[in-house]
Amino acid sequence: MSPFKLAAAELRRFRGHPIRAAALVAIVLIPLVYGGLYLWFAWDPYGKLDQMPVAVVNQDTGASVETDGETTAINGGDQLIQQLKEDRIFDWRFVDADEAARGLQDGDYYMVITVPEDFSTRLASLSGTDPEQATVEFDLNDANGYVAGIMASTVESELRNQINTAVYVTFATTIFGDLTELNQGLTEAADGADQLADGIGTAQDGAETLENGLGDLNTGAQQVADGADQVSTGVDQAVGVAQPVIETLADNWSQIQTGASSAADLSDRANSDLNTVYTTLCTTDTADADACAQLQTYIDDANGVNDDIQSANTTVQSTSTDTLDQASNDLTALQTGAADVATGAQQVADGAASAQTGAGDLANGLTELQDGATTLATSLTTAAESVPSTNPADDADNAEAYGSPVTVDEENLNAAGTYGRGLAPFFIAIALWVFGLMGYLVLRTVNSRALAGPLRSVPIAIGGWLPGAFLGILSALVLYLAVELGLGLDPRDALDTVGLSILVILTFTAMAHLLKLAFGTAGSLLLVVLLMLQLTSAGGLYPVETTPKFFQVLHPLLPMSYVVDALRVTISGGESSHVVKALLVLAAYLVGSLALSSLVVAARRRWKPDSLNVPLQV
Question: Which segments constitute the ABC-2 type transporter transmembrane domain (predicted)?
């Protein structure tokens, strides 16, 4: 008979009787009842802290602070109460001191937070020369549940942030007075700085336009300067030619006047002589009419010439050397003026170049001024935003930033997520061990008929173990499906988790089979003892380094330590070496347990007188 037939024969014993069949179903469901129920009720307790009743007592009487001659009333207690109402860390119960004391004593409240009457007064002292530290009282009662106090302490930092924020807002009020007005003033200043920045930007554009225009002016002025210089050079050349002529003309002018007078006299005499000749020749009857007419024409032309000579003589005689001197001076002034124009034009060009450079410097300066105005606007906006709000809802939302200005950037390489998911490896391992403990209270460890027959000891031992192993696999699968579908275990590697759970149940049932086979009822006691030792040494709840030395020594010797480490990897992630190590250790325990069970079976086949006594059964 093979081990599988022995296992089937053992399971057939439970057919046909409802109670026996129910017993098999019960042991299959034991891990689910133990592990599943515990994980269910403890899956995410910290996610429901807002359902824990906590009393809050506000005894603060407020205080008054003088700032710049103005009195400002502050009340840090009211500020804190309003913030707590906006942030439901716990199920807040705002009550008086007597009700809080009674509720804490009777277990109606897990904690009491008391704001003393001098809370605001002490906060107000922070603005003076003799500051006092304000206090907030936390009262617990471990008689209502020690773990409840531990849970409350886990959110103490968040609660402290709310308290610190209330203190921060109140203290800022004592220093700056009405925070709303301060915020509005800073906001208006920031708006003004923005407008200044915009205006400077417009001026900067104008400066750039001016710079461009002055560049054009500089170019034109330089062209004018070049032209004026050329004109000055031409005038110098002209004056150089005309000046000697005028000076010579001025020196000989008297002679010219004498000659002009003589020419005028000669012209008059010639004109008079022509008239005399005409009278002599043409007044007789014998005169030649044609010749006289021709002569008259000559006389008329001579009269015209004489008039011109007389007019010229008159002009020459009326023109003095002063006029020529003035003409010489005018030419000199023209020369000097042309030089001055050229010099002035060059100065204009130089001034235009300087103005262009200045306009560029102005544009650059306006750019820096605009940057400064923008920085000022940004700084004022930041300052306005940093002024604490007088709205408790806003303060509650900002409590984390106000209460803890510096945050710790924490990174979890393999986050478990919820409390229950983090403890799932530990309680799955315990549940599977409990199956081995309970399974062989119902199942027989060995087939008595096979023990007395010719079958070898190894098949008999394996045949006694297989029923528990088979039911254990079913139990492990039921537990996994319940936790996965019911609670959302969502392991990192589902197949590895299932496969590891199957190997664990095979190993644990083999160990339970060995102890039960070898020691009977005492074996059940040993299984309980091993359970206790593994609970305390597996490192499932606390780091093994924090436990006493005794448990640190046991930690690497017992299989549950490796099971917990491996399940953490398959569920949350981590080093695969932990899984490999667990597989090797579990395989060694499995093979070793089956080998020892075979030796126990072989030893029991040697009949002794004591073998006839019925052993104690549980």
Answer: 24-166, 294-598
